[in-house]
Amino acid sequence: MRIYRTDQFPLPLPAGHRFPAEKYRLLAEQVAQFAPERLDPAPAASRYELLRAHDPAYVDAVLNGCLDARQQREIGLPWSMQLAERSRRSVGATIAASRSALQQGCGVNLAGGTHHAGRGRGSGFCVFNDVAVAALLMLSEGQIRRALVIDLDVHQGDGTAAITATEDRIFTFSMHGARNFPFDRVSSDLDIDLPDGTGDAEYLAILADALPRVFAAASPDLAYYLAGADPYRGDRLGRLALSQEGLARRDRLVMETCRRHGAALVVAMAGGYAVPITDTVTIQTETVRLACRIFGAGELDETVSPRR
């Protein structure tokens, strides 16, 4: 099992910017304490790979610094060479994690989950859609037959739903806050809207009911799990009320369901905007730690190995 980091490619953001870019470095430092032998630098996605999910004009505008002011406002991040490079690395990490998962049961991207990026635009701090690129690439290469996106970020996965709308081999499932960004939704194959203040018991019961139906419909070889930390009750952009323990139980439910169904798993961190930032880092560290425990070397047996 390999874990890919992008923190070597920091974003130069204006002082006071609300995007918590520091979390990627802090998370990598925490993971290095218990799984240093699994950490790898993220490779950069190629233009060819990005074109699996994105329009050529948009890809070239990002890579060559031609995004206009409106496009940059929609993304919420100012363009820089570092932004373009880091965005390529974030996608490359999910591609590499997909290949790791198909060989070893699981792969992790310590960033990624950029689910608001559409085919020809970025949005909501998302430049390229790493999961859509990786899933479409794995299908085009014949590595998998079907893919499943389990999006448990607190925000609905509009970009992923839009990009994959005509691809019947990708099933998209998003469970998110009903009264949160994005306000113009693109329907996933299954969307579950949650009211403000939803806590552990209700959230976990709804998820436990949904996952068997999702796996029955999707029958995936490979699942992408957007393990957002932003359903946390201390998240400033979240509006839900899960505890850290509840989020850990959520992660275990998803990972054990994937094992039970024989689906390889890619974990992407997605959102997290808690104050203090260390709460987000703690939540996501535990997500990675659990993946190492469940999918680490020696833990996969023939009954749960990925289908090829």
From TrEMBL:
<dbReference type="InterPro" id="IPR000286">
    <property type="entry name" value="HDACs"/>
</dbReference>
<dbReference type="InterPro" id="IPR023696">
    <property type="entry name" value="Ureohydrolase_dom_sf"/>
</dbReference>
<dbReference type="InterPro" id="IPR044150">
    <property type="entry name" value="HDAC_classIV"/>
</dbReference>
<dbReference type="Pfam" id="PF00850">
    <property type="entry name" value="Hist_deacetyl"/>
</dbReference>
<comment type="similarity">
    <text>Belongs to the histone deacetylase family.</text>
</comment>
<keyword id="KW-0378">Hydrolase</keyword>
<protein>
    <submittedName>
        <fullName>Histone deacetylase</fullName>
    </submittedName>
</protein>
<feature type="domain" description="Histone deacetylase">
    <location>
        <begin position="23"/>
        <end position="279"/>
    </location>
</feature>
<dbReference type="InterPro" id="IPR037138">
    <property type="entry name" value="His_deacetylse_dom_sf"/>
</dbReference>
<dbReference type="InterPro" id="IPR023801">
    <property type="entry name" value="His_deacetylse_dom"/>
</dbReference>
